[in-house]
Amino acid sequence: MRNPLGLLSSLLLAMTLSSVLNAQPVRVELRQTPAGFELLRGGAPFYVRGAGGTHHLKSLAAAGANSVRTWGTDLDSKVLDEAQQLGLTVCAGIWIEHERHGFDYDDAEAVATQIEQCKRIVDQFKDHPALLLWSVGNEVETRSTNPKVWDTIEAVAAYIKKIDPNHPVMVVTTHPLPKTLAAIRQHCPSIDLLGCNTYAGLPALQSDLRRYNWTGAYLVTEWGTNGNWESPKTPWGAELEPTSTEKALTYAERYAIIQADQAHCLGSYAFYWGQKQEATPTWFNLYTEDGAETEGVEMLQSLWTGQPAAVLAPRITPLQLNEQHADRGVTVKPDTEMKVAFAITRGNASDLRISWELLPESPHKGEGGDFELRPQSLPLPAPSADAEPTKFAFAAPQAPGAYRLFLMVHGPGNKVATANFPFLVGSVADK
């Protein structure tokens, strides 16, 4: 006999999928008004409150977001269907190959093949009710010399405009440069709006767009804490990463900047709603590898909804190593005794679980979000039973090189605070 509960679940799933497949697209329009620009979705104004990343979508919706951004390779029917069920929209990325990855835009056959692949993606998803807009290309200008890449973007954008009257088309760049915007204006007349990935440059974004004669609408398609390439470094080149507490404050400060441009900015996608290795395992991430939420999640929730989270993440101060701050560039000899200290500024130590991890500094840091391997953990002693929870001692590795000590402070409700401290065994001259 078949399991009746299993049969019921299968029927409900089939009904849900059928309703998604049979649903009609929701029309999205970009409209210019005397006050500026606005998106209309289903005839109603739509200001984008979103994040980039396809994981933890249930939590994204619960935090008050209304949209999720994909980059291209992460776009599939599962993401669109889940977003639809949760009341989220999708900024659908269409990946355009980069020259820096070896793609040759003088190879007419390869270009034609890529355009046809993009067209198939559009054909597949253009009528999905969760679709908000198309995003054709992401930071293709990075180390690019061949302007034909913009012709490819235009070919895809023009195809979308021809067969999909319901969704605007965007192209995404890094913090905009005059030559990039000039190329878009010259080669891409089918583009409706601009997407800008910007971090430390966010406070200057609005003025830069005006200086460079961009008069249209835009979205801030990536933003958050400063990128590792924008951050202070030790003498041996290790970037100094803020704590999760500091990052949360940055989200609040920068969201206010985004909202200040009501005339041209249509909203934003915070980065990164998930976890990935980029410079470190924690740099841009709103979640940890085991799915714990940093304070950035609750900060975005309060910004999107005006309501605080029911359970709050711990807050901590930056680490000190042998009574020194990371900006001093701490170098030690092999087997040196290392004493680490920090303070908990929100949360009770008795309710928190503290863990430490030692990693070699990542030797292969990517560019523009390229894939990076996570370094393997190195052994650390267990904390002393009688030690204060905010202090830890260990011996420096014997092998000379650059290392980074990571701290995680786990609190109730799967909340976490993170920090790390780079140090060098040996000398800068050895590097």
Give a brief rundown of this model:
The protein has 9 helices and 20 strands. By secondary structure, it is of the alpha/beta class.
Polypeptide structure, described:
There is one protein chain. The N and C termini lie far apart (69 Å). The chain has helices spanning 4-22, 57-62, 77-86, 108-125, 148-163, 178-187, 202-211, 244-260, 295-305; strands at 28-33, 36-41, 44-45, 48-52, 67-69, 89-94, 131-138, 169-173, 193-197, 218-222, 265-270, 315-316, 320-321, 331-332, 337-341, 344-346, 353-360, 391-395, 401-411, 415-425. The strands form five sheets. An eight-stranded parallel beta barrel has the order 4-5-6-7-8-9-10-11, surrounded by four helices. The protein has a four-stranded mixed beta sheet with strand order 14-20-19-17, with no helix packed on it. It has a three-stranded antiparallel beta sheet with strand order 1-2-3, with no helix packed on it. Helix 4 (108-125) packs parallel to helix 5 (148-163) and helix 8 runs parallel beside helix 9. The chain is globular, with a radius of gyration of 24 Å. Strand 5 (67-69), helix 3 (77-86) and strand 6 form a beta-alpha-beta unit. It has two domains: 15-305, Glycosidases (TIM Barrel); 315-430, Immunoglobulin-like, CATH 2.60.40.10. The protein is of the alpha/beta class. It has nine helices and 20 strands.
Radius of gyration: 24 Å
Number of helices: 9
Q: How would you name the CATH homologous superfamily of the largest domain?
A: Glycosidases
Task: Please give the oligomerization state of what you see.
Answer: single chain
- Main sheet? 8 strands, parallel, barrel
Average of per-residue pLDDT values: 93
Distance between the termini: 69 Å
Domain module tally: 2
**Number of DSSP strand runs:** 20
Silhouette: globular
SSE run: HEEEEHEHEHEHEHEHEHEHEEEEEEEEE
Beta content comes to 15-25%
Identify the CATH architecture of the largest domain. Answer: Alpha-Beta Barrel
Classify the helix fraction into a percent range. Answer: 25-40%
Can you tell me the residue ranges where pLDDT is under 50 for at least 5 consecutive residues?
Answer: 1-20
Strand order of the largest sheet: 4-5-6-7-8-9-10-11
Structural class: alpha/beta
